[in-house]
Amino acid sequence: MMISSESIFFLLLVAIATAAVSSASADTTSVAMGVPKSTKLPGWLTVHKDRELMGHLLETARLRHKEAIEKARASYFHGPGTSGTDDQPQKVLDEYQVRASGKIPDFDTELERRLFVTNEKTPMFSADECASVVANAEAHFAGEPWSRLPSGQYDVAGFWIRDVPAVHEWFNRMLQERLFPLLVKQFPHFVPDIKDLCVDNAYLFKYTPETGRRTDVHTDSGCLSFTIALNGNNEYSGGGTWFEGLDGDTDVIEMDVGQCTVRPGGVKHCGHAVSEGVRYIIGGFCMSESKVEYVRMLLGLGSEEFSRGNIEKAIQAFEAAIALNPDFDGSYSNLADVLTKTGDKSRAREVLEYCFQNVNPESGEIAYSLGANYLEDKKYEDAKKCMLIALEADESDVDAMSVLAEACAEQQDKNGETHWYERVVSTPGASPLSLGKAYCNLGVVNEGTPKEIEYYEKALEYVPDRFAPRYSLACAYATKKEYDNAIHHFREAVEIAEADSEEEKQALRSLYRVASMKMQATGESARSREEAVEKFMQAIGKENYEKLASLGK
């Protein structure tokens, strides 16, 4: 079998990078790289052929890893273990295997995508310990609302553990005595000693029905992760963590107070919605000092470069991640996202189609992005096929349901459109934005029926500041000749719309028409032109009257 000179050089670069990191720590194991093994590199990929550029990107990834380790050491425990676990009962762990297609970003072979959960009969922490942590967290905020941390489409009440001293002190001690020893025990071929571990970051979340909606499907920022349940599952409804491709009878892992899950960070998962009560959890993301997560570091670099407006550098970083591990679909998704946002949708489709056909035909993330691309190009049947695959991966993917509804609407399939929007509103944990959009569109589908206004009002319960449902509700009242209600909601729509936008002008013109219709319908008369203007101004508001006057100029 002949090997090209580019391939030989690429493998040498990987070996050099590996040796560089290994030599930096004499007592650590050699770095495992995601060298291409099963998937052929796509023909459109060129970054690995530029020797100087690829070497620079690998070195940048290594330095980012080093900086992350130094930052982690400054925030959380790092060092040898203690004998603190001697008085702890032996833990029984339940093992699960993730059988989803595709690979994790880094160290897929070594980590084997196994999850371990401490059995409910031998939890990692006692109920009293967990209650003390929750009490310290609540005391820190002293009855005030908790800080918010971003989590996908919305913010969650919570904090970084390093920011709350009482919780931070306990957490560092538990890392040394219990959590790191557990990770070493369960992943001995990957982590030979707890001195090789550090926490990239850790948080404590307080999930409620308002802040505990379903999170986006994601991977964690670390090669190993853990989750700790801090209160009993009898204190809330819903919750639990969904994992893609989890074996067994369920794809959701639920834990009672004190239980702990440890797993590879690259496994795709999401938090299920809390529908009632309060759920407290701790989540931690761990790094190996001796093993550089080259793919994750390059993905982080690409995201940062894109946020700075350095589009070409972002693309290079994502392409380098693909070159290092062509079996991980997340790198293709990131690359396609940048290409889509910068207007290169045909190239984005090429990336997505390659991944879908050659890397992971069951990836919900890739299927969704490709389907959205097809929808914009009016390839409705192709878009629908992709979204159905996305729903096979995650049956609660309301974004995929919404695209299916849009495709049906474009095909004049009212029954299909109604079906999918009704699926959205019946899915637990759907975001307020998704619910508002679905109810608004159900109102459009039911135009002229008694349900129309009901749907628009329901939409406004979730998105009261959105123009579309407010304006649509006003139009529905105007059609029913309920002029006072129509005027009220048109005025609200004007306030919601951005100043001088087409939406504002549209709402102002509609407000003018319905106010005029009211005056004609009620037979209101005025003794003078000035009196007529005054009555009209009272109906629509002085400010809106002045805006209308300026539109006529």
What does this protein look like?
The protein is an alpha+beta fold. It has 20 helices and 13 strands. The strands form 3 sheets. It has an 8-stranded antiparallel beta sheet with strand order 1-2-10-6-13-5-4-3. A 3-stranded antiparallel beta sheet has the order 9-8-11, with no helix packed on it. It has a two-stranded antiparallel ribbon with strand order 7-12. The longest helix has 25 residues. 47% of the residues are buried. The N terminus is likely disordered.
Query: Which band does the percent of strand residues land in?
Result: 5-15%
- Would you tell me the structural class of the helices and strands? alpha+beta
Q: Can you tell me the overall shape?
A: globular
Q: From the alpha-carbon coordinates, what is the Rg to the nearest angstrom?
A: 28 Å
Quaternary structure: single chain
Q: Enumerate how many helices there are, as a single number.
A: 20
Task: Please describe the biggest sheet, giving its number of strands, its sense, and whether it closes into a barrel.
Answer: 8 strands, antiparallel
Into which percent range does the helicity of residues fall? 40-55%
- Tell me the span between the first and last alpha carbons: 77 Å
Poorly predicted runs: 1-13, 15-37
Could you give the order of strands across the largest sheet? Answer: 1-2-10-6-13-5-4-3
* Overall pLDDT level: 88
Q: Give the total of beta strands.
A: 13
